[in-house]
Amino acid sequence: MSDMHAMVLQRPRAALQWQERPLPAPAAGEARLRVLACAVCRTDLHLIDGELPQAHYPVVPGHEIVGVVEAVGSGAVALRPGQVVGLPWLGRSCGGCRYCAAGQENLCDRPEFTGCTRDGGFASHTLADAAFCLPLSPAQAAAPAHTAPLLCAGLIGWRALRALGEDVRTLGLYGFGAAAHLIAQVACAQGRTVHAFTRPGDLSAQAFARTLGAAWAGGSDEAPPQPLDGAILFAPAGELVPQALRAVRKGGAVVCGGIHMSDIPSFPYRLLWEERRLSSVANLQRRDGLEFLRVADALGLRAHTQTYALRDANAAVAALRAGEVNGAAVLLP
Q1: What secondary structure does DSSP assign to 188-257, as a single string?
Q2: pTM
Q3: Strands 216-219 and 30-40
Q4: Domain range list for the chain
Q5: How far is CA 239 from CA 19, 53, 242, 250, in A?
Q6: What are the pLDDT digits (tens) for 269-320?
Q7: What is the CATH number that goes with domain 3-152+284-332?
Q8: In 10 A of CB 210, how many CB atoms?
Q9: Under CATH, what is the fold of the domain 154-280?
């Protein structure tokens, strides 16, 4: 095979275009992956809408990739042809800035992001830095459509949950999309009580949350039946920050898990007072991926998916934007 296919975003707010391209050869330290599945993330919507200043256009979106290694460049000794791996959002870090030196590669000053600053997985093939590919268990490799959403939705949810801490036993999740539906399962397995906040009136998402173990589900404009120890915001709506602060107890915490959010409105200091904390999580680290994939494998964590052919990527994006996907949308090249 000498050609590959890709859905390309030429510029912000444009439709994705089907293109045929020459099959790329991996450079030193790289691997060429044949994409088995790539999930569609809310970050892809921000990319399409031109809300990510770091993005390079034209670009092939997609950063929740499960692929099989087809070829490796010199020095890519960690991978072998035929191996199935995951490729997440962080595609490369510089290794030399103060953050990389401190073990905070997620804050790297000169990073590369899959499907944003380098081509991603809305394609039949993609190139990856071999050092940033994540090994998968046999069960995960055998179910690429269910594994793909773990590589960003799951990972950022896991990082946000760890940022809250183990003492958070009563948890609120604002925005019940791909990330929340995964981390709700993890939190319930850990014995935490989950409260799911959806778009007001979205009874389908609320019922879906209950099937995954949520003790309570309601609209984001509602108050939970009890004070929360902590909350994670996955919805990119800044107006939910005061809502979440109002819902957490004294000493509680709110973590923002999105890469982009609308402006946070002013709110009275009393919502932050009494040692409530407001923070964010940014990107991810490879060790987050290794840790979470082990946890997911041990739990037998399964993503609920709605699958699309690669040519139907625009339809998948539209369905996600309209809130019509319970779980995750996944492209199958």
Answers
A1: HHTT-EEEEEESTT-HHHHHHHHHTT-SEEEETTSPPSS-EEEEEE-S--TTHHHHHHHHEEEEEEEEE-
A2: 0.94
A3: unpaired
A4: 3-152+284-332, 154-280
A5: 39, 22, 6, 20
A6: 999 999 999 999 999 999 999 999 999 999 999 899 999 999 999 999 999 9
A7: 3.90.180.10
A8: 14
A9: Rossmann fold (3.40.50)
